[in-house]
Design a protein that fits this description.
With about 280 residues, the chain is α+β, with helices and mostly antiparallel strands. It contains six helices and twelve strands.
């Protein structure tokens, strides 16, 4: 079905879909001193039709009347990346009039999730799916680079909240592993000795009784996050000082809802939000 010329398409009611930003802690860039500081990585999918044929985009898909936004977001991940995060949070809604490159107007409801290293399958590539470090992304379709930047700003604003950090490092961790997460998220060096003191003084860590060896270091104690009753994720942890960051996009609307749910079968719509349609 045709939609007329560009001017006529711009007057049509917008289509609505979902996109998902997945962030995981991964290896850093090699440096003269070794492997380098850990970095945040995210999966992108290669588009197989116009617009932006062959370009990289966020996992995404369309909506159906009998499915919730959240189930649609999970479906988009399942159909493109095979990832199954336990937690998704609604990030923002993007609806700028120029984001569809002359096509039908598009509104994108964006979700984000943090996943552990085990869920990434060591960042293995799959059909039309590749992991990229957040500081070395390729050219991206539509406004998806802006969306990634928005997700990173949100994460950096909330890095002091332990529930968020432990989604990247896992339920049990050493202080060095926790330190690596904070440096990866902030992108800046954090003094390890001061960090250790702050974390231990927070009163929100408990030892598991286990120890693991990290490189050539002596075995390190393993901790878990243990907040006081009723305080899980409700207040900052450890007093980590973060750099100032830029403000949010003018085309975005906050939507902080979060939830956990299962999957459902559905079809995918090819648009700014469905980059991996194969027909």
């Amino acid at each position: 079905m045709g939609y007329g010329n560009v001017s006529e398409r711009r007057m049509q009611p917008p289509q609505v879909g979902v996109s998902v930003v997945i962030l995981a802690l991964g290896p850093g860039a090699p440096s003269s001193g070794g492997a380098g500081r850990s970095r945040l990585w995210l999966p992108l999918v290669r588009r197989v039709r116009q617009p932006y044929l062959g370009g990289w985009a966020l996992p995404g898909g369309g909506l159906r009347a009998d499915l919730s936004l959240e189930r649609s977001a999970y479906l988009a991940l399942e159909s493109t990346t095979d990832l199954h995060p336990k937690y998704l949070e609604q990030l923002h809604t993007f609806g700028g009039p120029d984001r569809s490159r002359g096509g039908l107007p598009m509104v994108s409801v964006v979700y984000w999730a943090l996943v552990g290293r085990a869920e990434t399958r060591d960042f293995a590539e799959a059909d039309n799916v590749r992991w990229f470090p957040e500081d070395d992304l390729p050219a991206m379709a539509f406004d998806h680079r802006e969306i990634v930047g928005h997700a990173l700003r949100r994460l950096r604003e909330r890095i002091e909240y332990p529930d968020l950090v432990t989604r990247l490092v896992g339920p049990e961790f050493t202080l060095r592993q926790l330190h690596d997460v904070v440096e990866a998220v902030t992108g800046e060096p954090v003094d390890l000795a001061n960090f250790r003191r702050r974390m231990l003084a927070s009163g929100e860590l408990e030892e598991t009784g286990e120890k693991i060896r990290e490189g050539r270091q002596r075995p390190a104690a393993v901790y878990r996050y243990a907040p006081a009753a009723g305080e899980r994720g409700t207040r900052p942890w450890g007093g980590v000082m973060l750099p100032d960051d830029a403000g949010a996009s003018g085309n975005a609307t906050d939507a902080p809802a979060s939830s956990t749910f299962g999957m459902s079968d559905d079809g995918a719509m090819d648009d700014a939000l469905g980059p991996l349609t194969t027909i």
